[in-house]
Amino acid sequence: MPYLTKPPEPNPRAPRIKAPPGAWDCQLHLFGPAERYPMDPKSPYTSDPALFMEPDP
């Protein structure tokens, strides 16, 4: 059965470990629009749209 991923953390906090100078600590997954990029129907992972999308002209 598919499950919906958790929304963003409403109260983010600084990481406990500091990244080395020049390092990046970043990860991002954006999905959608589902009508154009559907999820695999066999995937247990689902997500709400991440961004507001203007309709194509």
What is the succession of H and E elements?
A: EE
Secondary structure category: little secondary structure
Strand content: 5-15%
Spatial gap, N to C terminus? 36 Å
**Rg on CA atoms, Å:** 16 Å
Write a concise synopsis of the structure shown.
With 57 residues, this protein is mostly loops. Helices cover 0% and strands 7% of the residues.
Core attributes:
57 residues, two-stranded parallel sheet, single chain, little secondary structure, elongated
Write the layout of secondary structure elements.
Blueprint: E1 3-4, E2 45-46
Parallel strand pairs: 1-2
Question: Could you describe the 3D structure shown?
Answer:
This protein is mostly loops. The chain has no helices and two strands. The protein has a two-stranded parallel sheet with strand order 1-2. The chain is elongated and about 40 Å long. The model has no long low-confidence stretch (mean pLDDT 76).
